[in-house]
Amino acid sequence: MINIVAAYPDYLDLYGEYSAVRLLQKRLTAAGQQVRVTELGFGRYSDLESADMVYFGAGTEDRILAVLDHIRLYSEQLKAFVERGGLLEAAGSSMAIFCRAVTDTRDGKTYEGLGMFDAEAVITPKRRYGELICSDGSGNKVIGAVNSSIDFKRAEGQKEMFTVLWDSSDRFPKGSAEGFRTGDNVFASEITGPLICRNPFLLNRIAEKLSGERLPECGELWYTELQKAYDHALDVLLKESHLQ
Amino acid sequence: MLDILTCKLLRAIGAKIGRGSSLPGKICRKIWPGSLKTLKLPDKIIAVTGSNGKTSTVAMICEIAEKAGLKVVCNREGSNQIEGITTLLLSSADPKTRKVDADVVILESDERFCQYTFKEVVPSHMVITNLFRDQLTRNGHREFVRGELRKGIPDSTRLILNSNEPLSCAFGNGRKGTLYYGVSAPELMEEPGIPHAYDDGAFCPVCGGRMKYSYRISGHVGSFCCEKCGYSSPQADHSVTGTEDGSLIIDGELKVAPQILNEAFAQNIIAAYTAAVEAIGIDPKKAAELIDGIELDNGRVVEFDLNGHPGRFMLCKHENSMAYNGAISTALRDPADGVTVVFIVDRLSRKYVANDMSWLWDVDFNRLSDPKVRKVILSGGFAHDAAARMLVGGVQEEKLIIEPDLDRMMTAAAERSEGSIYVMTCFTDQYKFLDRLRKYGREAAK
Fold it and tell me: Quick one: how many helices (H) and strands (E) in chain B?
């Protein structure tokens, strides 16, 4: 049984992020795995000791701060979960929760983060939207969008998830680092889409990591359509970026 | 004087090349930046803003006011940012007196541009229809839009708010004289337990506590109450209290027949009625008579026949789940035994780089698994994204016809549809269907 914890799914619910856990469940089930999804959130407790993965989606800036305040109740359990190799993934703005500090320029306050990444998050009044093509370092192109008002200041040595090849908003210069990773089990990316829905190879990669084995090809129609959607979107973005 | 004359001239020229609504105002603002403030405007200036329904609400208020014999100036062309409103007002003013020749000015405004427009033109009343997830690639999220809109509400303006929409309704907290409208008709309430993709009514916009609903009209629109701070739907000054023979009942006594009997039309009609009665001062009975049977000629709903199938084209907005949810609800209420839904998503924006499809996951496409829906035809460049989303949502494989090619979509709609056809798409993609529909009709007639 694979246990996935959806963290604050009805609170950090922007940009279709709830679907990431659903797709993982579907992909794993299609490969014959048994999956249980539970929720952690306000008034909802999940046992992190038996969890294999904890997933945080994107939320508004105020909600990120509210979650940061609440998740401290579980910070020791989360640290223990990560230390024993549990897979933690944060998408979009929730990446801020795991930085060393979060500064809100709207009121000048700074909050202590969970410190899993050597970086600082800065909430600004300015929103930016950009569509990205990135490299995952294994020859795959990652696509998606960054829709955020949070800037991230990465310390030297903090590892990235992806390398940016193109950003429609010019926020990320070509070759710059996107996202954070610590070890091979704590991942975060600002990119939404949702990230693992837009990029089926990432869905597969995480599903294989959770199952601990190479999964057979998924022949179900939803997955085939997801692949076709990726091919089309990549084609559109490559044309817009003039990378092709 | 020169600013007004220049604007009138530029508007006349611009109208011939299709750029007459905002460009003249843009040019005039550069040359005479303060001219809007010096116009003599009527006392009654009604602004209408919000994510959904503002164009229809504005059209209905205009219709009532004009039929009541009032002279109306309104940005019906839809240019709802400050440049468009500058064009409208300067070109409606007398060059000598600077007086705008109208009994009432009705202005549709983009939510994020109120802070600029209403620094220069102060509305007597402002209708805020709702704050929904809308164009998130441009707007970020609802809380961000709320913050931007808040900057655009002048202190002296009397608000007219939707008592059923928690986020925008909170603008009335502590604000004297605020008017509220709502829908409490049991026939328009959602069946309890409809699984929505997300719930923007789960948490209180005032304190963050959990909210409870005694009923819902659509999604998070309904009668709400926060368990923690007690923030709740205020008593509505005017409401749709029921339906009878296809008509809405307003305030328990006045009958008004809508173009389509659904929750979106009900909210727009009661918003327009409240503005007409409370802001313009039209007698309630007369306002109801004037709005009765109103059919908006704005292309948002087009009835058609395709190969013997009755069809309804419903203009929605990509990146706006509530618009699509409303159209899906309407299709599911069709009296026919079965319906076919055609969904076209080919291009998100004519202005921006926007290929984000995350909004598809916010639409209640899972409801298309209802046995009443016999076929779902998906078309446009992003048809595969839509297909994946629907399949994950539980729509049955055998229902789906995936035809990214638009011509083949048209053939599929004509030849493989079952029951009534509902076509849903955005203004960016509407003619990809409507042009083909006309062509198909011409060829069928040969």
Answer: 14, 17
Tell me how many domains chain A contains. 1
Q: Are residues B258 and B305 in the same domain?
A: no
Which of B353, B364, B369 would you mutate first to test chain A, the one with the most A CBs within 10 A?
A: B353
Domain total in chain B? 2
- Least confident stretch, A131-135, B123-127, B193-197, B267-271: B193-197
Burial B124-152 (b: 16+ CB within 10 A, else e): bbbbbbbbbbbbbbbbbbbbbbbebbeeb
Q: Which pLDDT score is estimated for B300? A: 82
Q: What CA–CA distance (Å, rounded) separates B221 from B219?
A: 6
Q: Which residues of chain A lie closer than 8 angstroms to B141, CB-CB?
A: 14, 60
Residues B361, A19: C-beta atoms closer than 8 Å = yes
What value does the mean pLDDT take over residues A65-80?
A: 95
Q: Tell me the pLDDT of chain B averaged across its residues.
A: 94
Q: Which residue of A has its CA nearest to B397?
A: A221
Q: What's the confidence (pLDDT) of residue B307?
A: 93
pLDDT tens figures, B382-401: 999 999 999 999 999 999 99
Give the E-state strand segments of B68-171 in sequence order.
Answer: 72-74, 104-108, 125-128, 158-162
**Whether residue B243 is found in the same domain as residue B314:** no
Q: What is the CATH number of the domain that holds A30?
A: 3.40.50.880
Q: Which domain holds residue B36?
A: 2-291
Residues B165 and B234 in one domain: yes
Cβ within 8 Å, pair A14-B141: yes
Query: Is the same domain home to B243 and B335?
Result: no
Query: Would you call the peptide bond into B234 cis, given omega within 30 degrees of 0 as the criterion?
Result: no
Cα-Cα-Cα-Cα dihedral sign, residues A10, A16, A17, A23: positive
Note the pLDDT of residue B445.
66
pLDDT tens-place string over residues A125-147: 999 999 999 999 999 999 999 99
Question: What CA–CA distance (Å, rounded) separates B389 from A229?
Answer: 10
Q: Could you tell me the residue range of the domain that residue A76 belongs to? A: 2-241
User: What does the pLDDT look like over B65-91, one tens digit per residue?
Assistant: 999 999 999 998 778 899 999 999 999
Does B224 lie in the same domain as B335? no
Q: Cβ–Cβ of B138/A226 closer than 8 Å?
A: no
> Which of A15, A61, A65, A133 is most worth mutating to test chain B (most B CB atoms within 10 A of its CB)?
A15
Which of residues B232, B260, B291 is at a domain's end? B291
Quick check: B145 pLDDT over 70? yes
